[in-house]
Amino acid sequence: MQVKISGHQFDVTEALNEYVSKKLNKLASHYDGITSVQVTLSIEKQRQCAEATLHVRSADIAASAEHEDMYAAIDLLTDKLDRQLLKYKEKNIDRLQGASH
To answer: Are 74 and 19 in contact (CB under 8 A)?
Structure first.
């Protein structure tokens, strides 16, 4: 899984980079079909924003989150991506099982 982390109007620190990578690796343990991830972190006045797009075999899964703390925004983002990824995985399983009957 390729991970690209970029900052919008600020430099991403090594600590933030490692934190995002650690969180995204947990997503990869749920579903092994993730090919790449694009994460954009930005700061807008008092809001810390985190956006990501997961590229899986046949679709893209996107999510964004905001919080006053960047680490909390990343946590919210990975939670959203996790829910969407599990839903995508369940749909694929249902589709495959439906095709075999």
So the answer is: yes
First CA to last CA across the chain, in angstroms? Answer: 33
Quick one: tokens of 96? 């495959």
The model's pLDDT over 36-45, given as tens digits with 9 standing for 90+, comes to 999 999 998 8
CA distances from 68 to 1, 50, 64, 76, 85 (A): 29, 11, 14, 12, 25
What distance in Å separates the CA atoms of residue 5 and residue 59, rounded to the nearest whole number? 20
Backbone angles phi, psi at 38, to 5 degrees: -115, 120
Q: Which amino acid does the sequence have at 12? A: V
Structure confidence at residue 101 (pLDDT): 54
pLDDT value of residue 94: 85
φ, ψ (nearest 5 deg) of residue 58: -125, 15
Rounded to two decimals, what is the model's pTM?
Answer: 0.89
Q: How many C-beta atoms lie closer than 10 Å to residue 99's C-beta? A: 7
